[in-house]
Amino acid sequence: MAICDEFGISQVTAKRVLTELRKEGLAAMYPGVGTFVTELPQPEG
User: Fold this and answer.
1) Which of 4, 5, 25, 32 is the most buried if burial means most Cβ atoms within 10 Å?
2) Which domain of life does this protein belong to (predicted)?
3) Model-level pTM?
């Protein structure tokens, strides 16, 4: 995983983080394509 090399983390940690981001609606996974950041929520105010 490129994210592992870029941040110096293990694959287990990278998968755990990406799973949490998907659960929170901040990332979307497309099998065979990749994982992408979804539209970020706009701050209230």
Assistant:
1) 4
2) Bacteria
3) 0.71
CA angle 11, 14, 20 (to 5 degrees): 140
For the stretch 17-27, pLDDT in tens is: 999 999 999 99
Angstrom distance (rounded) from CA 11 to CA 5: 10
Question: What whole-number distance in Å separates Cα of residue 31 and Cα of residue 3?
Answer: 17
Question: With b meaning 16 or more CB within 10 Å and e meaning fewer, what string describes 8-39?
Answer: eeeeeebeeebeebeeeeebeeeeeeebeeee
Name the 3-class secondary structure at 5.
helix
